[in-house]
Amino acid sequence: MKKIILYPLILLTTAAIIIIACNKEISGRTDNIPALNPDNQDLDAGTWKPVLLSSPSEVPVAAPGATTSPDYIAQINEIKSWQADLTGEEQRIVKYWSAGAVLRWNEIMRELVAKHNLPPYQNEDGTYPAPNPNNPLAYPLFPFANPPYAARAYAYVAAAQYDALVATWYYKTLYNRAAPYHVDSSLKLLVPASTLPSYPSEDAALAGAAAEMMKLLFPGDQEFIQQKAEEQKRARIIAGANVRSDIEAGEALGKAIAQKFVARARGDRAGAAAGNPAIWKQMEDACIAKGEIPWKSLETPKRPPMLPLFGKVKPFLFDSLTVIALRPGPPPSTSGEEMKAETQEVFTQTSGASREDIRIIHFWSDGAGTYTPTGHWMSIACEDFLRKDFSEVRWARNIALLAMAEMDAAIVCWDTKYHYFNPRPCQMNPNIRSLTGVPNFPSYISGHSTFSGAAAKILGHIIPERAAAYDAMAEEAARSRFLGGLHYNKSDCGVGLVVGRNVGNYAIQRAKTDGAE
C-alpha cells in the first residue's frame, strides 16, 4: 500500500473541492436545453479563414450521388426504418444532440478534464510517478489534466472542429444537396428544419474531428469517446436530418482535418514540457544568481514543478518570439520593501477573510477534480452563447477563439512563472495560511488572472453588451487568488490580468480578420 502524506490544509480543503466540483456539474442543466435553431445559418462560412488549413477546400470531398438514385432512396428508407419504432433512448439522444454538437463536445471535454485533473500520489520512496501516454490506464492515469494541459486540449479540439466546419460549409454550398426531409416529405423531422444543404453532415464532421483529437489527448477514454461519436451520428439519421452518405462524407472530412491538428500537436513541444531535474535546477540557480529567493515546492515530499517548459509550447495566435515579448517585467525583489508590503497584505487578508471572501475563493478555485480555469470560462461562455442562437459554425468559431486565447495565455503565463521562479506568499511568510490548495508552481504571474484576462477580452468582443460583466468576472477571479492567500495582489494578480488581456487582444485581431464579422 502506498504511504500517503498530505498537508492538513489539503485535508481541510477536500470538502470544499468536492462542493466546487458539484457546483460546476456539467450534466444536470444540459437535458433541458432547447434544440439549436438559429435564424442565421451563416451560409458564407465556407469563405471564413481556417486556423490550420491553407483553404477550406484543402481536404477534398467527392460530389454526392443524386437524390433520385436507388442508393439514395435506400438511405431514405433506412431513416424510415429507424423512425418506425423509436425507443425512449433513441428519442433521448436526438434531443441531447439537437441542442448543438459544439456545445455537447465542449461539455464532454470538460467532463474528461475534470476526471483527469488529479495529481498522482507519491511512491513509497518519496518520488512521484509520472503518467505514461503509452500505458494510459496504468496508475497514474494519463493525462494529468492540469491547467496548462487542459488549456491546450480545449484549444486543439475547438480549433480542429472549427476548421472542419468551415470546410463542411464550403462543400455544402458547393454541392447544395437538399436535406432528406426536403427530398421526401413523408419523413418525420425530429429536429428544427434548416435551410442548410445536408452534404456533408456538419454533425458528423464535428464528431470525426472531436473524436480523433480527443483520442490523442485522452487515450485511455477512447471507448467512451467513440461511443459519443457513434451516438451523435446515429441521432442525425434517426432525426431525419441526414442520410448515411451525408454522415460518411462529414466524418471522413472531420477525421482528415483532425489528423492535420494531430500532426501539429505531436510537434508543438508539449511532450517535453515536464523538463528534467537538471533543467529545474538551472531555473532555481538562475533565480539565486539574481540575488532572489527561488520558489520551492511546498508539498511533502517535495513534488516536481508543474510543466516548467510549457512556456516553450507552440502557440496558436502568435509566434514564440511574441511569447517572450508578452512576458512582463520582473516582480518586486524578494529582499525589497515592496515585496515585504505585498506579503504583509496577503497575511492581513487571510487572517480575517469574510464570508463573501470565502464564497469568491471557492467559486473560482477550479482546483483538483474540476475542469480548470479554462473550463470554467468555457462554461460561462456556453451559457451566454445559448442565449444568442448562434449557428453551429459560429459556435465553433467562437469557442475556438476562446480556447486558443486560453492556451496561449497559459503559454505566456508559464513562460513568465519559470523565467522569474518567484516564491509564493506562504513561502515568504510561513504564518500565512492559504484558504485553498497551494499550486505546485511559481507565483508570478497568477494563472487564474492571466486566463481570466484573456477570456474576458475575447468574450467581450464576441458579445459586446456583456463586456463589462466579463471584465468584472475577470477582476473577481483574479482577486480570488489574493483572497485565498495564493498570490500577491498587485504583482501576481494585477499584472496577470494585464498580460491576459494582451493575449486576448491577439484573439480579437484574428476575429476581426477571419471573415465572420
Characterization of this structure:
The protein has 517 residues and is mainly alpha-helical. It has helices at residues 8-23, 70-83, 88-98, 101-116, 147-175, 180-183, 202-217, 222-238, 244-266, 277-289, 320-326, 337-351, 355-363, 372-386, 392-420, 425-428, 447-462, 467-483, 489-513. The longest helix is centred in the N-terminal third of the chain and has 29 residues, at 147-175.
List the main descriptive attributes of the protein structure presented here.
mainly alpha; Vanadium-containing Chloroperoxidase, domain 2; 19 helices; elongated; Phosphatase PAP2 family protein
Radius of gyration: 24 Å
Largest sheet: none
Instruction: Determine and state the CATH class of the largest domain.
Output: Mainly Alpha
Percent strand equals: under 5%
Number of strands: 0
Could you give the distance between the termini?
58 Å
In CATH, the topology of the largest domain is named Vanadium-containing Chloroperoxidase, domain 2
Poorly predicted regions are 1-28
Q: How many H/I helical runs?
A: 19
CATH architecture type of the largest domain: Orthogonal Bundle
- Can you give the helix content as a percent range? 55-70%
Q: On the 0-100 scale, what is the average pLDDT? A: 93
How do the helices and strands follow one another from N- to C-terminus?
HHHHHHHHHHHHHHHHHHH
Shape: elongated
Question: What's the topology here?
Answer:
Elements: H1 8-23, H2 70-83, H3 88-98, H4 101-116, H5 147-175, H6 180-183, H7 202-217, H8 222-238, H9 244-266, H10 277-289, H11 320-326, H12 337-351, H13 355-363, H14 372-386, H15 392-420, H16 425-428, H17 447-462, H18 467-483, H19 489-513
